[in-house]
Amino acid sequence: MSTALFDLTGRTALVTGSSRGIGHDIAKALAAAGARVLVNGRNEAAVAATVETLRAAGARVRGYAFDVTDEAAINAALTAIDAEIGPIDILVNNAGIQRRMPMTDVPLETWAEVLDTNLTAVFLMARTVARRMIERKSGKIINICSLMSELGRPTIGPYTASKGGVKMLTKAMCAEWARHNIQVNGIGPGYFATDMNTALVEDEAFNAWVCNRTPAGRWGRTEELGGAAVFLASAASDFVNGHILYVDGGMLAVV
Ligand code: NAP
Ligand code: GCO
After folding, report:
1. Minimal CA–CA distance to 38: which of 98, 97, 82?
2. Which among 10, 99, 129, 218 has the fewest CB atoms less than 10 Å away?
């Protein structure tokens, strides 16, 4: 089978929250497959540093620093991208945060912060980008879900609710946009050692739990998500829609 199916040459990919962590390595993988990548995060310096790193590695890359919870900032950025770059062919809704505490202690502000970032932003970004994809009768949207799209664990109620929402929003987007040749799918990472999870990695008991609970016996490496991202961003997945692809070392397959 030709690798041309996975070739992203000539495509433009916006990856939200790609200044570090999972989003960074997804952007890196899409660039390596030929896409021009647009890096995002709230911190301008971090975005600029990532742009430089990816550019030094040969990527065609630009940075757009904005807060995905700010509708006006989203609209301004998407307008600028339209004017400066052109159409977004691939949108990866990756930006996300985690807040850990017993649900009875969760202030409404914390609930709102998590849901705004992890769920509402996915809606806001996709709604505007999809309008343009519908006009062009073509597009790829990848929403970053989680093991918590399927399972719960104590102390991460807002996050779990947000990720369950992202899974179902992915299916809702499929229901409305597949007819316009837009493929909307999710990637569900297992446990990966990023800034989001530093506290977990450093917790000996939790670290041991992850390694024992994961059939692969280890945490995932963020570069191991690149293949799933390139697949769902490419022609190789043109008849895949509403699917959540778990990259979790087998964790969801076993009790
Ligand atoms: P991370 O290392 O903390 O990176 C989060 C990224 O999102 C950063 O680039 C951050 O940059 C950006 N971000 C946060 N809030 C933002 C906002 N309001 N607007 C724009 N950018 C924002 O986290 P990660 O582990 O890579 O997680 C990335 C995604 O994967 C999240 O959706 C997370 O839920 C999901 N996920 C992670 C794991 C895991 O094990 N790590 C597993 C499953 C799913 P700034 O802070 O500078 O804005
Ligand atoms: C946690 C972690 C998880 C992972 C990821 C698993 O506190 O349990 O943050 O939520 O980040 O979402 O798929």
Report:
1. 82
2. 10
> Which residues form the domain of 168?
4-246
Q: In what order do the strands lie in the sheet with 90-93?
A: 60-65, 36-41, 12-15, 90-93, 139-144, 182-189, 244-247
Q: Residue 62: phi, psi to the nearest 5?
A: -135, 160
Ligand 2 site residues, Cβ closer than 6 angstroms: 98, 100, 146-148, 153, 156, 159, 189-191, 196-197, 200
Q: What is the distance in A from the centroid of ligand 1 to the CA of 175?
A: 27
pLDDT at 3 over 90: no
Q: What DSSP designation does 77 have? A: H
pLDDT value at residue 242 = 98
Ligand 1 atom nearest 93 alpha carbon:
32
How many domains does the chain fold into?
1
Residues belonging to the chain: 255
CATH code, 96: 3.40.50.720
pLDDT above 90 as % of the chain: 99
Looking at the domain assignment, is residue 255 inside a domain? Answer: no
Entry pTM: 0.99
As a whole number, mean pLDDT of residues 44-71 equals: 98
Is 253 within the bounds of a domain?
Answer: no
pLDDT 10s digits, 81-116: 999 999 999 999 999 999 999 999 999 999 999 999
- Residue 143 to residue 94: CA distance in whole angstroms: 6
Q: Is 252 among the domain residues?
A: no
Residue 86 lies in a domain: yes
Q: How many CA atoms lie within 13 A of 109 on its CB side?
A: 0
